[in-house]
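Handout, section 4.2: multi-component inputs.
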Amino acid sequence: MKQTTEKIIELNNITKTYASGITAVSDFNLYVQKGEFVTLLGPSGCGKTTTLRMIAGFELPTEGEILLNGKNISTLPPYERPVNTVFQRYALFPHMNIFENIAFGLRQKKMASGIISKKVKHVLDLVDLEGFEGRSVNTLSGGQQQRVAIARALVNEPEILLLDEPLGALDLKMRKEMQLELKEMHERLGITFIYVTHDQEEALTMSDIIVVMNEGKIQQIGRPEDIYNEPKNVFVADFIGDSNLFNGIMTDHLKVRFCGGTFDCVDDIEKGTHITAVVRPEDVIITNPDEGTIWGRVDSVIFKGIHYEITVICGKNEVVIQSVNAPKVGEFVGLQVDPDNIHIMATGDSTNYFMADIRPDFRLEFNGKHLDTSVTAIISGSSRREDGMLVNSLGDAIDPARTKIMIGIHPKDITMTDQIEEGLIDGYISNLVYKGDHYSYVIHTEIGQDFVVDDEYLWNMNDHVGLIMPVEKMTFKLK
Amino acid sequence: MQIFKLSRKSLGIPYGIFLILFVVLPLLVLFYFAFTNGQGHFTLANLSDFFTDPNTLGTLFYSFAVALVTTALCLLLAYPAAYFLATSSLKQKEVLLLLFIMPMWINFSLRITALKEILTVIEGNLARYPFANAVVGMTYDFLPFMILPIYNTISRLDPSLIEAAKDLGANERHAFLKVTLPLSMPGVISGIAMVFLPAMTNYVVLDMLYNSTYIMGSLIGSYFSAYNWHGGSMIALILLAIIILFTILTGTDQDDRASGTGGALL
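Output:
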């Protein structure tokens, strides 16, 4: 643990609720150490920009406190905070030339004009825009405006530089260049950077610490490597990089079963726990069919420049693989994963998820049987167009043939039956664990997907059962 | 293709005819009368008469004074209102804006007649304060034309510019003076152009207020009603020259955004 004095900023129990009743950020706790490059990462609407705006002073937290060097600044107006912001769309003053834009903050401090010119020249050198003093804002390219915006913030020598998606408006090549430049600038200046982005690659490239956010809450805080290799939950695993996520169960000590196979793993989790396994596409090894832990047929091979992206269908599971060697489409292959490369997360919630197809008549189909509901009934505001397309409430047309519905159902809502035909799907009990007041079963089905079922009665291993799943207990998500 | 081109062009013909009949020809006639005398000979006498006659010069300065005070008053009333409307997070601000511009949709003579009655009640005799009445009448009439362009420019300002100013250490007042005010100038200039020039000439307002003072518009009217077409035309031309000069000086013709004064509402 480093000393408390090194914490430059602390956000304690910060909650922001707008007058409209929407909570943008809830119970946010974070401290940043002096000189760190911290990135708030998350999808749009996750509260990352609101958090940054509260640090800048543009928004006041509804609850909680913000400490800067131990001093509470929660209610200070922005102009009294020793932090400066680089805005998403630069926000350069169009009625001032570059010099005046950069000098704005210094003039507010009533500095002598000689010192101002010197400082402006210095930061212009820093951002590689020597001699741009007299240019007007609208003669500059996006990248140049970006640099001016950075210079305008840095010239005030802020304790913390806040950057709100500063590279969002630049093209890819420029963005990559600026990423490296910003990173280098951070190392050279030693100023604390708090950076907001929705681009996970950008966050991984630049940051010392990443704060992954979703729906106003922190999902995980950690170094880029940790966030990538040891995601704490399904959201982080899914958001950071491409990953394969499988629902499974611990079948034995250091043994995990998912995707129709039993793998060795290194996470010591209690037997019988429902888990989500995360396997990165680059960690799946393609082998001969007889050497694989699981088997499947190659569905697609896409060339991605430095590697191929290969999709293999194993039962009902789709496994995405990145490899420099490409198998043929339709080929039967075996798949292995090194125990180190299987990351296991215990799921508090062991909901079963499976994919259903949409039939032309808009009813849902799974395992060759139709469900007693239709796609228009589960997506509010949607309707069927004459040409057979699905139209959602926003008026977007969706092709039902290319769309799947992810159905979720909780283990306690599935009933097992001896009458095989009554079930939506059938299978054999491959695992059972007593959970105090009920048994938790794993049903291995022919399509390769395991279902978890809770039942208070004892069934036997290898019993053949049908699974009855009431439609009203299901949750649906368009995929 | 040929036919299509032809038909596209021919769409402009009706307006072209209108333009020639009612704009170009009258302008030529105006020029002709301004620079000729009763016998049809070329003369600059109408021009020199205007600048030597103390009456006409007096009227010019009086009109200037009325227009100047009217514009200043409009600006003083309109800017804070427009600023408040544009920056407030009020949900009903569209309604408020509507209330400000609603008078424009009510018949002009009705409005001025109502104003006349009110002024009569207050002042007793309208003849007592002719200058003040002229200014009040004009201000009442032209205020919406000042509010709209200013409102439009301020509400189109990127809020992050104000935030940037505050972020860089400017308090509310400085952020306003250094950023909002200079960036709203196109709207202000546009508003001035829409108020100042009509305020110099719109003598109907004065007539309806039983105001016996002369502004440029009334002067021209009096020349024509006395059948002095030559002198009247010259004054109209001089006014036109002033307008053109004003437009060039303020550069309003170059700034499309500023002159777009909420056409939808007008």
